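Researcher: Following up on the earlier apo prediction. This time include the ligand. It's zinc ion, with the SMILES given after the sequence.
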Amino acid sequence: MTRSGNGFRMRTFTRDINRIEPGSGIIRRILSVGWNKLRAVPACSPPRMPELRGVCSSLPFMVLASVLLLTVGVIPKHAVAQNIDIQWDSRRAFGYLQKVCEIGPRVSGTEGMLKQRTMIIEHFRQFGCEIRAQAFDVAHPQTGAPVRMTNLVISFDPSAKERVVLACHYDTRPFPDRDRVRPRGPFIGANDGASGVALFMEMAHHMKTIRPRYGVDFVMFDGEELVYRDFDKYFYGSEFFARWYRDTPPDYKYVCGVVADMVADKNLNLYIEKNSWKMAPKVTQSLWATARNMQVKEFIYQQKYEVRDDHLAMNEIAGIPTADIIDFDYPYWHTTRDTARSCSATSLSKVGRVLLQWLTEVPIELGDK
Ligand SMILES: [Zn+2]
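Model: Understood. Below is the ligand-bound prediction.
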């Protein structure tokens, strides 16, 4: 498939990599060769609106945001399943986060990203799920040279025709430009990048035992923030994925979706994100209802930030009602201090347990778009 966008060509190569032998050399081949079989696949990832980013980091904005907290009422009753017994392994999950961080920066198109992708594929292969890669090229925002992007779609129960998509981004921002001391220092993206990856890596261990109501796809978006200046484009991966889903519909349907972004903050506060509330109210309500039933108080049933994240493409382009779980009260956002030390195994565990429980009780009537 050939696409145009912003004056550069996008080419898609998609392939089921489940049957490929392990090894980064193989992965490299996938990236450099146009595979012409297999279904095309889409992708996903992390937050925000370029125009808000600069603003929301300022003190006045923070104050304003706290004043504008909107109570959204009582969580509607929603059919919940018996709480399942989830043997979430906090230490193992946090170990995944550390392992991803040890790779170093994972900027789209770099060696670090390639290493991470290889590691992710190796990890999920052990669960017998179907893994597909969706690759495309974009122009580098500074040099114009082509940058290969690769979304990953990891499917559990791949034959199910009704599916839920859980997405995160797995690239990291090139620089910690909000760092007052070292805005050109290293950016590790422990919360903003690795947390979603680690979340899904641990969730994979439980997919067989929890018996989700629908088929489940973990989608990892590349190119969420190949951003050097605030006006650079965000969301390459999620937009590509969403257009793929809209323009060449697969033989299955996504009933709804969730984007997880910055979910490992030590001081976890998960307010309802405003765009999620507007665009996917039932999904949002059901997530927070599950958290309430599990007494996970970090899911706060109030609106706070309006964030442009990968869920916008999912809602607006793909038509999949998708909520964003994001902790935007993270003081180390886009700084050199977004490291594993600013994250917590407990926070990751809380989000993971809620999502696993929620997968067993996703409301059947979803389709609130
Ligand atoms: Zn970011």
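Model: The first helix runs from residue 24 to 32.
Researcher: Noted. I'll compare it with the apo version next.
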